[in-house]
Amino acid sequence: MRIFRPDWGRLAVSRKPPLWVVEPLFAHIYRLQLDPLSYFKKMADHNIFWEMNVNLDTIHKGYEHPYMLEFFKNEEQQRIIRESGVALSIGFDGHRVYDYKPERIITYCKRIKNLGIRLAFDDEPK
Questions:
Q1: pLDDT band (50, 70, 90) for residue 94
Q2: Cα(37)–Cα(34) distance, integer angstroms
């Protein structure tokens, strides 16, 4: 198995982003042949949360990350996150203030809470 190591010199020439920038977290875990539940439990044990980005801004031309959309459809991924105890955070990967829509962040935070998953900035861990 080939592990990607960022080569910034080659990156500047190729204009291809490094794998760790574009590969969704679950896909990365499976590619490394790791157990996702154990992986996320380790994150939770070290107080590391997972941030999902909701774009829909003009720079990204309304792009929505497929990994984030998949997560909200995939009950197995939701179960793994719930059981691991890892917290989630919703972020906005935009770069212009006028693109920022707080209601979008609030809506996704509510969806996470309704799934029984802890948010990173909740007062008490699960």
A1: confident
A2: 9
